[in-house]
Amino acid sequence: MKVGVLGCGNVGAALVQLVEERGDEIAARTGVRLEVVRVAVRSLSRTRPIELPEGVLTRDAAAVVADPDVDVVVEVIGGIEPARELILDAIAAGKPVVTANKELLANHGAELFAAASTAGVDLLFEAAVAGGIPIIRPLRESLVGEDVRRITGIVNGTTNFILTRMSEEGVAYSAALAEAQELGYAERDPTADVEGYDAGAKAAILASIAFGAKVVAGDVYHEGIANVTTTDIDFAARLGFVIKLLAVAELVPVDGGPDEIAVRVHPAMVPLAHPLAGVRDSFNAVFVEGAAVGDLMFYGRGAGGGPTGSAVLGDLVDAAVNLTKHTHAELSVAARRPIRAIDELRSSYYVNLDVVDQPGVLRAVAEAFERHGVSIRSLEQEGIGENARLIFITHQAREADVQATLADLGNLDVIHAITSVLRVVGEDEG
Amino acid sequence: MKVGVLGCGNVGAALVQLVEERGDEIAARTGVRLEVVRVAVRSLSRTRPIELPEGVLTRDAAAVVADPDVDVVVEVIGGIEPARELILDAIAAGKPVVTANKELLANHGAELFAAASTAGVDLLFEAAVAGGIPIIRPLRESLVGEDVRRITGIVNGTTNFILTRMSEEGVAYSAALAEAQELGYAERDPTADVEGYDAGAKAAILASIAFGAKVVAGDVYHEGIANVTTTDIDFAARLGFVIKLLAVAELVPVDGGPDEIAVRVHPAMVPLAHPLAGVRDSFNAVFVEGAAVGDLMFYGRGAGGGPTGSAVLGDLVDAAVNLTKHTHAELSVAARRPIRAIDELRSSYYVNLDVVDQPGVLRAVAEAFERHGVSIRSLEQEGIGENARLIFITHQAREADVQATLADLGNLDVIHAITSVLRVVGEDEG
User: What proportions of chain A, in percent to the nearest 5, are helix, strand and coil?
Assistant: First the structure.
């Protein structure tokens, strides 16, 4: 089974090496022998960690796709174009495609799956979400009959590394980010990671697969971690929480109508006893709640050549075996379901206020909460004089009501600043 | 697609209900409509949580298998016979089989898979290991190309519940066991759970799938948890460990020969920072170490009608879809690889000795360790007089050498008793 690989960065190089190392074992177990025959790269002169026979490397990705010798195409270039067009060309030529391209799938997934379905070929993408962790296949296959209600993921290793450093070593956000950049976890421009765009793309893909509906990156509400401070982390720890950047996709029942899909990315306070709380450093994990199966969690490496290459390899073997059997996996994510606005979110909230230390402050603040029907579960007063603060945790409340409360609080003379607001998960729900 | 179900206990009843509730959604997503047409039970008069149309229930399991109306067979009777024969009959009739039967697979898996392969039908068994957790499919498919080196599982919910109660509430083993029995987690005769037989069967299945070789229940070395005391648990906590009953399957490199398979079940000290340490109550988890993918963990409910029924349902949909496509999944576990004797295990050990409080004791004990080449990493002396104890943690040592040391220690007059010996994982390895 002859494989054409588009892209030879970390993941592509790892894949080529894995095919080489594991080829005999894979052939013994599946009867299919993989051979990488063409690899498309941007530059022929760059040094690579792997050696390839002469004639394998080319700068012409379209020629790899069109090569009649190539049976299966692996796309690890990333980005929307030319990846989209190359994949559509491969599918049109009846060639199964394996991709790790979260950005493309989160924006054009439905189009690509429809094309694959029409052509009757596989389009597999385990590596696009949470790197080496098998999560797409379990959702598509193991849980196809399950009523999955919610998925909560730590799906960005860079931000999890930063938050872990802040939490465990007490370093500031900027220092932790700099460290992540030095270690190669974060890009020089870290926007995609720290602002939640990367996690948002993955949330869209997870929502599509779990709920069998079209969810795109633009449907995902997102907030990043740049405003999380070590003070927040210390308060969280004292209250029995750890702060994580979460990607959440859930079905919300609506009176007299179909469930709506809510999908968002934001930092949140996670109770220490929750399985996600122990996911440290650059590890990822996806927590799945189903009506029959209960709670599941899938944990592992969300990035890196080895783990991501391993996920691509699993898909590649599957696509190759399917091709020999003239079969393929179907996936329908074309249906559209209503996306729930973030305003309608119901959650518990942590609110940290920098206040004037004088009588009547608490009453004024409490009035603002009461006015919008936001009920307070716990309250701490901290410090005196210039350092006085009020820290609230609310009962479940509607996001819009909390935002209206915050707007009112911002207008109070007795409040210096709304230091932070974080959603709290796993508490007071249902 | 017409389904015949053999057995209608917790899992069977949950499955029938899930097929009813989720049938429309499954049909919408896969194009396959499931219908349970026959259910074989032991007694027709027993009350059940589900209602079935007249004519569906029967006491004749063989007739369900033979019924030309039945396309797919689900076996949730358990035990070796008649399950084995019924499954072989179904396979011979060209009908895919979904089973949750760990005991049968751990003893006759290779025979059954060979029969399924010959007949060209699916034999799927996600529910046989770790209940609702997708682990068999990820190992068979997602990780088919991965060089899986070791699997470490908490795969028995009953013993994990007991150990959690002992650890978190300080209750004695016997009291925790009684509580597990009251809650229905443990059988009246708890031998299969507490002595590690149940976990051993699952370890054999995991080893077979991960390493593509025939491993049977009889290959698995096992120790149970009946001798674990709250004292051990307290010492473990002080040293930064928690005690878990682990099922371990690993490949061990052998100089100049093929890797050997080591497979065992025993209580062990797990470092608190290890992802398995946080797996509490009756939850299960399977930790997988691969050469390329790194560390993975799969966490969830290991038992119960809902979770196990959900796993059976996932397989059932897969088998039904494959049947409509005239395809099936292959699995070859017939190859035999050398099984490594427990004597050859290399591990770190915790040894707790009840000793005479007099000069020279430590020297005598140290001599016994030294005689067998077992090197001591840390040592604590505790208590005085009648309560004097020595607590050791060794560096990695060979099991046979440690056993020889323990035999020597047992002959020393200055030692009242070897209170406990536990293997320590995740420390000082490699």
Answer: 40, 25, 35
